[in-house]
């Protein structure tokens, strides 16, 4: 049964009772597919009719995750373009900073690959942070440093919006129209430069940024880190203005920005990678590096 689920979904429930509830929930959702497409698309299969909060699932690559809403799927099956790109550059001993770690889908997988290296998992949503800690424990990870804060252009406090969908919480307004706001709280905000200094990190090799419209603020607070450590950046960009400003900041710092994947439904929503030009000069074995270097040689 587990193998059937892994093949069909890429993950499987970890108990018989959970399997039963999962199948009922998914079947009800499937029923709506044929009678009401809108209900089908919006149906909360994680909480209706059975609540699956704290349920445990195993993934096809052998990790165990628990969560509190249907966005657990972003941990069970991370976005392919992001995961594959991150893993392409991960090696033993590196430092990986996950800005917007959610419940650990990327951080935990990277932690297993970096060996003696370490992962800094930054997550501001208190709900997500609770489950990030649970998932770190479930997978017996010892080289992740979890930090509950937001990163931005200045140190201080900021009003943070908690949305119903766990992956959407932010202090920007990009989800105000299309998501249900639960509450607003004040959370600490610090610059990435300050975080690196406080943790006495010697090397920063890869930084993943997924902060729901605040990516430019994160980069403005990371100038010292980018200049000193020259990490590879994987950035989810939300909106045309964010894209233009992100590209300008990075080009001014001698980075090349490339689009990995664009959302067909949401304009200017994309996954990108930014690589320092000197990384390409040292190692052009990867396809992305080759593309960037070839572009540089023509300009």
Structural account:
- Helix 6 (105-113) links the parallel strand 4 and strand 5.
- This protein has helices at residues 2-9, 16-33, 37-42, 73-76, 80-89, 105-113, 126-138, 192-198, 215-220, 223-229, 240-252, 277-282, 287-298; strands at 11-13, 56-59, 64-66, 95-99, 118-122, 144-147, 150-151, 156-163, 181-190, 206-209, 232-238, 255-262, 269-276.
- The protein is 40% helix and 24% strand.
- The chain has 13 helices and 13 strands.
- The chain has 299 residues and is an alpha/beta fold.
- The chain folds into two domains: 2-62, no CATH class; 77-298, Rossmann fold (3-Layer(aba) Sandwich).
- The radius of gyration is 20 Å and the shape is globular.
- It starts with a helix and ends with a helix.
- Strands 6-5-4-10-11-13-12 form a seven-stranded mixed sheet, sandwiched between helices. It has a three-stranded antiparallel sheet with strand order 1-2-3.
């Amino acid at each position: 049964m587990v193998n059937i689920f892994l093949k069909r979904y890429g993950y499987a429930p970890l108990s018989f009772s959970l399997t039963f509830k999962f199948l009922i929930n998914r079947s009800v959702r499937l029923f709506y597919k044929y009678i009401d497409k809108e209900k089908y698309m919006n149906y909360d299969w994680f909480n209706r009719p059975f609540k699956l909060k704290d349920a445990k699932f195993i993934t096809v690559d052998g990790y165990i995750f628990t969560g509190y809403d249907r966005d657990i799927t972003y941990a069970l099956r991370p976005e392919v373009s992001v995961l594959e790109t991150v893993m392409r550059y991960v090696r033993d001993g590196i430092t990986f900073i996950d800005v917007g770690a959610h419940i650990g889908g990327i951080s935990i997988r990277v932690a297993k690959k970096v060996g003696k290296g370490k992962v800094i998992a930054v997550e501001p949503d208190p709900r997500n942070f609770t489950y990030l800690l649970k998932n770190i424990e479930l997978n017996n990870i010892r080289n992740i440093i979890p930090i509950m804060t937001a990163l931005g252009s200045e140190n201080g406090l900021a009003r943070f919006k908690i949305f119903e969908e766990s992956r959407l919480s932010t202090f920007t307004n990009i989800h105000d129209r299309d998501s249900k706001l639960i509450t607003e709280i004040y959370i600490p905000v610090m610059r990435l430069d300050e975080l690196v200094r406080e943790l006495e990190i010697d090397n920063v090799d890869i930084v993943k940024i997924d902060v729901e419209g605040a990516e430019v603020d994160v980069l403005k607070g990371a100038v010292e880190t980018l200049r000193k450590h020259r990490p590879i950046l994987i950035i989810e960009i939300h909106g045309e203005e964010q894209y233009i400003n992100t590209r300008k900041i990075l080009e001014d710092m001698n980075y090349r920005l490339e689009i990995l994947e664009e959302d067909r439904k949401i304009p200017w929503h994309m996954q990108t990678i930014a690589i320092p030009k000197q990384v390409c000069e040292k190692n052009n074995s990867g396809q992305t590096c080759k593309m960037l270097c070839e572009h540089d040689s023509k300009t």
